[in-house]
Write a structure and sequence with these properties.
This protein is mostly beta strands. It is built from three helices and seven strands; from the N terminus they run E-E-H-E-E-E-E-H-E-H. One of its GO terms (molecular function) is sodium channel activity.
Length: 144
Amino acid sequence: MLVKCEWKTSEVDCKKLFQKTKSTGGFCCSFNYKGLFVGDYGPTNESENVYVGGVGSSYGLKVYLDAELSQYTTTETAGFWVLVHNSRDYPDVLVYGTHLELNSQMSLAVRDSILSSREEIRGIDVETRGCLFTGEVTIVYVLI
């Protein structure tokens, strides 16, 4: 299925970039996914994350795919589902995914945003401020 992969302008073995993971649509190939790979299911080590070195399509990830139609048993549509999500979120491809038809090309732009607050905000109750500071609650991670 994964024919060729390029990362930051260089060809890379797809097996080094992607892991087989379970999603709402079955098994998928995940890039930079941390949700179920952390030993204690707590926050990941920041150095384990994958970052691009610049902006523009040549600095990101390019993947060339083969649908391998002869391998299909039953399916509603031919092609691929693509989902870009937070590396810690479960891949809910059936709700948030975008369908990529056969013999087509897709380009996705990813924009980041940073939300930060001053320490004084911590004094406002959580319900009013609508956000959490690191360490304010214990999050329980559940294997699915």
